[in-house]
Design brief:
The complex is a heterotrimer of chains A (363), B (296) and C (442). Chain A has 363 residues and is an all-alpha fold. Chain A is 70% helix and 3% strand. Chain A has helices spanning 12-15, 17-34, 37-63, 71-88, 94-113, 121-141, 169-192, 194-204, 206-212, 216-243, 253-266, 271-296, 302-323, 327-339; strands spanning 154-155, 159-161, 164-166, 245-246. The longest helix of chain A has 28 residues, at 216-243. The two termini of chain A are 19 Å apart. The relative contact order of chain A is 0.18. Chain B has 296 residues and is mainly alpha-helical. Helices cover 73% and strands 2% of the residues of chain B. Chain B contains eleven helices and two strands, in the order H-H-H-H-E-E-H-H-H-H-H-H-H. Chain B has helices spanning 4-35, 42-58, 63-86, 94-116, 141-163, 165-175, 177-183, 187-213, 223-233, 238-263, 268-282, and strands spanning 132-134, 137-139. In chain B, strand 1 (132-134) and strand 2 form a beta hairpin. The termini of chain B are far apart. In chain B, 55% of the residues are buried. With 442 residues, chain C is α/β, with parallel strands linked by helices. Chain C is 43% helix and 13% strand. In chain C, helix 2 packs across helix 11 (291-301) and helix 12 (317-340) crosses helix 13. The longest helix of chain C is centred in the last third of the chain and has 24 residues, at 317-340. Chain C is globular. Classes of the chains: A mainly alpha (363), B mainly alpha (296), C alpha/beta (442). Chains A and B meet through helix 6, helix 11 and helix 13 of A and helix 4, helix 9 and helix 11 of B.
Chain lengths: 363, 296, 442
């Protein structure tokens, strides 16, 4: 991938206080009350879960440059771990189970991340596939994970947090928004700190990074750990807030590819890009089917629709990699910079020894 | 008493299965060797080739004509891919190209099914699969046929690389791109030829796998079996693809039968990958591979 | 979240508002369809949903609807993926006049159980679904019509018994179950064990990892174990590969008994010669000679409204399953209308109809489906309806029925089902119904 370098992003929506306040008001004050159940349940909640997973994968692949094709495995680990903690230790408050599930996912991530110490590029990608297949197999094989349900499917129980039942589309949406916002905020802080700069150094030029003293082992493992933690938490959201039933088949290779596509489409090494990419992936199929049905009517049967969607997404990936490797978010930024000139951000500067310690993280 | 007969049966079956994996892996090797791209879309190309062939045959086109038409289509596809996707990405790191082929695989899969439909087709190559009985060990006729085809293909490629201009050009580019340029070889032409060759391999592999499994969507998943083969054999060696395929096929089947019961079965899905992973940690460039693996 | 998100939301909101503004036409009953016409299981989906839509069209064209109430439907492609099924559900559930949900997918059905119970609309999972949803006392809104996975197992074992000359002859025989490595495949593991204990046959259950492209080692093990019968509990590509691999290792194909999801033309055609002689269970015979099929061809395809692109597939196993499913859904509505009036019914009223869906062989014949399927007898506490099964053998070109209508061992299975449903009720705090007393909300 062409190396998206650090850029100070003065996007008013995410940086300024007013921008953040507006976001929070919309997220908490407007949408839960005005959003239809369909919007909340079938669009926003999966969007939030996928966006968090994308943020996680972005930390690993976009910022730290370690390619992973097995992210769906960590979604599954998070979901099943939370289910089991919740089931077997009922005294634990759910939020604790959530965090523990993330930690379990992080632990698994560390194990499968160890090869990254010796491998790079698509050799590493191939080894992450091992994680994907092994986890999927283990969850189907060992009935313990799904409480010996003969079909291996888990029904997520209704969440209760501090005595309040999280049932109903609006409450589940608010729960997801809160978790995602907290997790994203913490991730941004991490990326803005030394660790974030270490990630980028390792991604851009591993040997140079080693030379200037970046601890490779710790950095890579931290990337894997943080990434898997976030993806694990996203898996909990996916299972408990969105689908409320999970089977291992939903965490297959296609799902891993989907998350990878999200970060490529949205923009590697861009948190806002992860959200944009996730929104795109969730909304695009629905829009396409509406538009297609409207324009072409019955000729456009669902089969045709599906295949067209596949072609468009694949084409978009290729097109973006050729024309705008920094993803849709870069296009959005360019557009908004043209429309709103006073918000133009300073030109991105690549890392150099002079500015290594002064560059801030990128949102 | 260890059941030797059964063991031989599983082993032979595994080796022959492995040959089928090698067929797919060879397509990867061709492209990787000459352009450094790991073509994840090879499986989709396989599906496209098989679907095209089967759909033509079902519409009444005679076998040889359908075969030629399919080959022509794949040649065209190869040239198009090189021009439209690879040339613009020529200076990007390999991982970008890999992700581009991932996107490409989605495009090809979608296009194949859009064009030809999503139903399942049977593919009959005219081989009756009643097994040979050799000293109590059953060997499948079809698998032997596939092995023969693979052998013939490898032999043809060996001759091609040695005695034709294009073949020599392939080897030159594979060896040293800059030197090849210096000598006057037109790289884009060579790459177009390489993708075409991979397309031809896709036709052969597609027909054989299609006959084995039936021609439908999951055909493109065979690519997931080829990756461990490549890891074992080296990404850039055809001999490695063969040996790697044989090894993976044998290990997979033997593992499923002898190790599987301890886990409750079903370990085939990841056995190959775990073996590959182990190999990567110990000998990253594979048994026959030459390129240096990027390591810390 | 970026500047464009509100715009996108606005566009979406408009689209949804427009879509939902469809006026609630009087006298229409709506069937939302979570169909799958592409993806690995497209063959089954196109057949089943094609047959279902064909039957709905037949009722509309020939009869003008059910007592004047026209049947409408809308399809949402799911590609057999659970979250797409959920999305289609959320999108279509507020459409006026929803009669019932018919997903034909175990994963999607599981995800919907809570939702439809809350929204009070029946969920029909013909020939599949949660086995314990047969117990209508705990699952008032879920109907695994005709056959649940346990009944299917019992039916297969009973058939093997008839092949061997009686249930007592099963003792000592070796039966291998080759199952797909997925929740669907594993659902029947415990019941096969119980039946093996009951009848005294040797049982081995071997898993084929999804998607089932490679089965060499499994079939070699089967041959080595000298199995008498193999039950194929497959799905998608696993089926033809199983048949071909069986041929490769020399296992006789007529001793392979396929289950309800390994019984269609799409499963055997790709296997070519290797499938000749293969036997599979079915709840609906295949073929287009039944009166109702003939009517569909004449009336629906004749008017150019046939749903299948390939007319050769009329009368195929999945197509006929769709037709039978159509019959069951329409008859439930008819029965409910007899009680509640000839108008658009609510979900609860349709549920009442399903709980009184009793079609004896005479009624089945009157519907033009004699020998297509046997009968059904749904009650408030038995949502499966005691469907009978028959077995067909593939001769290379079509399926031929080779057995009588066999009854599964319902009495043996019921206590097991009740145990499982009681556990579900306890886990989810559901009050177990004691009589047909679930109020029908207006």
């Amino acid at each position: 991938m062409s190396t998206p370098s650090l850029s100070i992003n003065a996007n008013w929506l995410t940086r300024s206080r007013v921008g953040v306040a507006v976001l929070l008001v919309i997220a908490y004050g407007v949408i839960p009350f005005t959003g239809s159940e369909y919007l909340l349940d079938a669009i926003l909640t999966p969007f939030l879960a996928l966006a968090l997973a994308a943020v996680g994968l972005n930390v690993l692949t976009g910022y730290a440059g370690q390619v992973s094709l097995g992210s769906a495995a960590f979604l599954a680990v998070g979901a099943y771990a939370a289910y089991n903690f919740n089931l077997r230790i009922p005294e634990l408050p759910f939020l604790v189970s959530l965090v523990l599930a993330g930690i379990v996912a992080a632990a698994v991530g560390l194990v499968f991340g160890l090869p990254s110490l010796r491998l790079r590029g698509f050799y590493l990608a191939v080894s992450t596939l091992a994680a994907q297949f092994f986890v999927q197999w283990a969850l189907t094989k060992f009935g313990w994970f799904s409480n010996d349900n003969p079909s291996g499917v888990i029904d997520a129980p209704t969440l209760t947090i501090g005595g309040v039942q999280i049932s109903g589309a609006a409450r589940r949406y608010v729960f997801s928004v809160t978790i995602v916002l907290i997790a994203t905020f913490l991730t941004v802080r991490l990326l803005a700190a030394q660790s974030g700069r270490n990630f980028i150094a390792v991604r851009d030029h591993e040997i140079a990074a080693k030379v200037i003293g970046v601890p490779l082992l710790r950095t890579k493992l931290l990337a894997f750990g943080v990434s898997s933690f976030l993806i694990g938490v996203a898996g909990v959201l996916w299972a408990f807030a969105y689908l409320r039933t999970v089977e291992p088949a939903g965490f297959n290779l296609d799902r891993s590819f989907q998350i990878l596509f999200i970060i490529i489409i949205g923009g590697l090494a861009s948190i806002r890009g992860s959200f944009l990419g996730a929104a795109f992936i969730v909304v695009f199929p629905l829009l396409l089917s509406r538009v297609g049905a409207a324009l072409l009517g019955n000729v456009f049967d669902s089969g045709v629709l599906e295949m067209s969607q596949r072609i468009v997404i694949g084409g978009l990936i290729v097109g973006l990699l050729i024309a705008e490797p920094r993803g849709l978010i870069a296009l959005v930024d360019r557009l908004s910079a043209r429309i709103l000139p006073k918000l133009r951000r300073p030109a991105p500067q690549p890392i150099s020894p002079q500015n290594y310690h002064s560059q801030k993280g990128v949102i | 008493m260890f059941d030797y007969q059964f063991f031989i049966e599983v082993l032979v079956g595994g080796l022959l299965s492995g040959v089928m994996y090698s067929l797919v892996a060879i397509g990867f090797v061709l492209i990787y060797k000459t352009s450094g791209v790991l073509n994840f879309a090879q499986g989709a190309m396989l599906l496209f080739a098989a679907l095209t062939f089967v759909s033509l045959v079902e519409r009444g086109v005679p076998f040889p004509l359908a075969l030629l038409a399919t080959l022509a289509v794949m040649v065209l596809l190869g040239i198009t891919i090189e021009r439209v996707i690879l040339r613009p990405l020529v200076n990007q790191p390999p991982i970008t190209l890999f992700m581009a082929t991932l996107g490409l695989s989605y495009v090809i899969e979608g296009a194949a099914q859009l064009l030809w439909g999503a139903q399942v087709h049977g593919l009959d190559l005219g081989i009756n699969d009643t097994p040979f009985n050799v000293a109590g060990v059953f060997i499948s006729q079809f698998d032997l046929f596939a092995a023969a085809v693979a052998g013939a293909m490898v032999a043809l490629f060996a001759l091609f690389f040695r005695y034709t201009r294009t073949g020599l050009a392939f080897r030159a580019v594979a060896d040293d791109q800059f030197a090849a340029l210096a000598v006057g070889l037109r790289l884009p032409r060579v790459w177009a030829a390489v993708w075409t060759a991979a397309g031809i391999v896709a036709v052969v592999a597609g027909l054989l796998w299609g006959a084995r499994l039936g021609v439908q969507f999951s055909l493109s998943l065979v690519v997931l079996k080829a990756l461990p083969v490549l890891v074992l054999g080296g990404f850039d060696s055809i001999a490695g693809a063969i040996v790697g395929g044989l090894l993976i096929g044998a290990i997979e089947k033997l593992a499923e039968v002898y190790v599987g019961p301890f886990f409750g079965g079903g370990i085939e899905a990841w056995a190959a990958y775990v073996v590959a992973l182990g190999f990567l940690l110990v000998r990253p460039s594979g048994l026959f591979g030459q390129k240096l693996v990027e390591r810390a | 979240m970026n500047v464009f998100k509100p715009f996108r939301l606005a566009v979406l909101a408009t689209a949804i508002a427009v879509g939902a503004m469809l006026p609630a036409k009087a006298d229409e009953q709506f069937f939302p369809l979570q169909s799958y016409r592409v993806g690995p299981y497209a063959a089954g989906g196109t057949g089943f949903f094609g047959g279902f839509i064909d039957y709905l069209n037949l009722i509309n064209i020939r009869d003008g609807g059910v007592n004047g109430v026209k049947l409408t439907w809308d399809e949402g492609e799911t590609q057999y993926e659970v979250e797409r099924g959920v999305e289609v559900y959320e999108r279509l559930k507020n459409h006026p006049g929803v009669a019932a949900w018919n997903p034909l997918s175990v994963g999607i059905a599981y995800a919907m159980i809570d939702r439809i119970t809350k929204d009070k609309v029946p969920l029909i999972t013909i020939n599949h679904g949660r086995t314990d949803s047969t117990d209508g006392r705990v699952f008032p809104y879920v109907f695994p019509l005709l056959l649940n996975p346990y009944s299917e197992t019992s039916g297969i074992v009973n058939y093997i018994a008839t092949r061997e000359g009686g249930p007592d002859k099963l003792k000592g025989k070796k039966i291998v179950v080759l199952y797909h490595g997925s929740p669907y495949g594993k659902e029947t593991i415990p019941i096969y064990k119980l039946l093996a204990d009951k009848y005294g046959f040797d049982l081995e259950q071997i898993e084929v990892p999804h998607p089932g492209n490679e089965q060499q080692s499994q079939w070699l093990s089967i041959r080595r174990a000298k199995a008498d019968y193999v039950v194929l509990r497959g799905w998608g590509v696993m089926n033809p590969v199983a048949l071909k691999t069986a041929q490769k290792v020399g296992f006789p194909v007529d001793h392979i008994i396929g289950n309800v999801w390994s019984n269609s033309e799409e499963d055997v055609i790709p296997a070519g010669d290797a499938a000749k002689g293969y036997v599979a269970i079915t709840t609906q015979a295949s073929g287009a000679e039944y009166p109702v099929l003939q009517e569909v061809i004449k009336t629906v395809y004749g008017a150019g409204k046939g749903n299948l692109d390939d007319k050769k597939r009329i009368g195929s196993v999945y197509h006929n399953l769709g037709i039978v499913n159509g019959i069951l859904n329409v008859e439930a509505i008819r029965i409910a209308q007899a009680k509640f009036g000839h108008r658009t019914l609510t979900g609860d009223e349709v549920r009442w109809g399903f709980e009184h869906l009793q079609l004896d062989p005479a009624r089945v014949e009157a519907l033009g489906a004699k020998d297509l399927f046997h009968s059904i007898n749904v009650t408030w506490d038995n949502h499966e309806g005691d469907g009978r099964v028959t077995f067909q053998q593939w001769d290379g070109a079509k399926w031929k029925v080779v057995s009588d209508w066999i009854a599964p061992d319902w009495a043996f299975l019921r206590p097991i089902i009740e145990k499982s449903s009681a556990a579900y009720a306890a886990e989810h705090n559901i009050k177990i119904r004691t009589s047909d007393d679930t109020p029908v909300s207006q």
